[in-house]
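#struct-pred

JT: dropping the chains for the assembly here, can someone run the whole complex?
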Amino acid sequence: MNNTLDEFKEELETCFGTSCGFCERGCPVYQTMKVKTLCMKGRNRTMLGLLQGKFDITPAVVQAAFECTLCGNCDRWCSLKNTEHTRAFREYLLKHGYEPMKEHASLAASLKNYGNPWFQPRSARNKWTKGLNIPKAAPGAQDVLFFAGCTSAVMKPLVPSLVAGAKLLQRAGVRFATLGQDEPCCGSTLLRVGQTEAYEDIAKKNVERFEALGVKRIVTACPGCYTTLKKSLQDHGSKIEVVHITKEIADLVRSGKLKVKRSTERMTYHDPCHLGRLGGVFEEPRDILRAIAPLAEMPNHGMESRCCGAGAGLQSAFPKLSRDLAAKRIAEATSTGATTLVTCCPFCETQLRTVPGIKVADLMELLLSSVENGEKGNDRPAPGKT
Ligand code: SF4
Ligand code: SF4
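RK: done, full complex below.
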């Protein structure tokens, strides 16, 4: 469940007493802005000062709460639950009468009216399934539910990734259903921008719905849906398993059910925060990519990966900073000598494409084209480290 800011007071005091500053080194926002209140050491002090009644909520305090991607890098260096502090800080501000940032308010309004944060009609949600012959989920009729997620389903440039993922599962003989036009939002956006009660309402309804359908496993295409649904199900004591599609597909590549034609083109991989550091999935996407092409790692990868700048409402509320973070990531990718930067998150993909310098590709689309080539008579070499 989601703790309130008051419940983190002891942790904030620990940080104040320690003041070690280890969290500064990997924080993409702090390393870009060099403003002390924008790393966790400073933000924790701000939260503590507020709880102690030492100052009021000012525009600078609000900035300290929202100028963070919730990427989790600070938790890498610290035993405190820093990203949870920041989420609770946002909730605290909203509960104390601070109006949500107008960009975040509009995302929430869209979710209420359309069931997605992007002002797209509900009918747009199911367009990606056209011609794929995927059954609609019904009580007791399926074990596996494919969860597309709002962003990929309604944003046209991202639809090919969903289609590729579904086709790969079908080729490998995995039977699954979708919720079609009725697929709900996972609630990730609301949770990250501090609208905790609205998220909890969505989470409860989602879990009840999945349970009523008798689903055993949910395969998500989006890393944000992956961590959010996992949390929702755990918080409600559900035993339904959630996996990201890269886990499902990596197993099929490793077992040879999907035959891949390997390219000699050097590629690098960007770990989406929600899949890697926050979701613990590092090797599966790499195993898939290594089967497709030689992998050249960026200096900051795996647990050390740096956020693309799209997360937790930063892209909509602080576009300049968000783009600066993306530019840093693109510079890292080009430094590897790779020709293609591969990722598997609709937010990272969209964000990284805003900066020129390297081709950005989606892992599922890349794999589907490699599999189609592989079917033309090439053997798949065993995935190996490169
Ligand atoms: S957040 Fe953690 S790492 Fe950063 S100063 Fe506080 S105790 Fe140290
Ligand atoms: S979550 Fe990421 S951006 Fe936010 S303070 Fe921690 S390291 Fe910095």
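JT: nice. Residues 267 and 339 are 6 Å apart (CA to CA). The first strand starts at residue 144 and ends at 147.
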